[in-house]
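Ticket #296: bound-state structure for hexanoyl-coenzyme A.
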Amino acid sequence: MESPFKAEILKGKVALVTGGGSGIGYEISLELGKHGASVAIMGRRKHVVDSAVHALRSHGIPAIGIEGDVRKEEDAARTVESTFKHFGRLDILVNSAAGNFLAAAEDLSPNGFRTVIDIDSVGTFIMCREALKYLKKGGPGKDPSIGGTIINITAVIHYPATWNQIHASAAKAAVDSITRSLALEWGEDHGILVNGIAPGAIGDTAGVTKLAPQEIVNQLKQKPLYKFGEKWDIAMAALYLASDAGKFVNGTILIVDGGQWLSKPRLMSREEVKKLSRREETRSRVAPAGLPNSKL
Ligand code: HXC
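RESOLUTION: The complex was predicted; output attached.
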């Protein structure tokens, strides 16, 4: 789909996207680049990073790839420094790297739980911490009065409880909390905007392939609100937050899921609701003495 944003809205900006080699991270990198940003992507798998850089460059986007693991402070520091060395500034950090798998709480080892917390929550904190020096107002290559932007990719699985996701739910709840704390502290002290994007089920991503096997997908497709989003939907949200359009938005978590997180199973049809509601109203009007009578 064509972007509704002008092609130059990020002209001159430099973005670093963790997990930018594939899935949502790649799509965000592509759209930031198509709107004028230079892009550095970080990922653990060299061949994935290399082919993503190649693809970005084929769109005319100035791009570099850095192999690294967000769990390792030295990798994070090296990535941020390489980005600065190559492009001369850093304006946008997108924390999109994540790890997940399906596991019932009873079957999950402490190390399995810890691994996902380490990638999603600790990794996000490490990247933010290493990038601070370059993102803050007056930092190297930055305007003295305007700081950069951080976008943390989170999820909606921890709003209601989600089966088989105790590890990722805890990890993403921590990511949201990190987003708000940094929005407060770094917004005030350094002029940095920190926001989150919470994607719902997005088709053609590792998240959906790993977490929603085809059998479940087929069941969900019967329910009207359970539409799959596209990676493009998340990239557009990122563009909004990264561009001047989002300059007064700080500490928010933008849910991009078509409203699915609100949905609960419908227990009665509308007709049944009408019938039952009227029956109860009638009954309440003839309530025994001492009980409140409806005035409706
Ligand atoms: C139970 C599992 C498991 C599984 C791993 N573990 N897979 N436990 N069921 N399917 C346990 C291991 O047994 C081990 O614990 C511990 O987790 C660490 O496993 P490793 O394989 O050593 O970890 P590592 O190589 O670091 O790999 C991390 C990973 C892997 C998370 C397990 O899947 C990964 O790298 N994923 C990155 C890509 C990814 O998952 N993308 C999807 C993101 S989707 P023990 O006790 O045995 O030592 C997403 C969306 C969120 O984030 C919300 C969407 C709705």
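RESOLUTION NOTES: The chain has a mean pLDDT of 94.
TICKET STATUS: resolved
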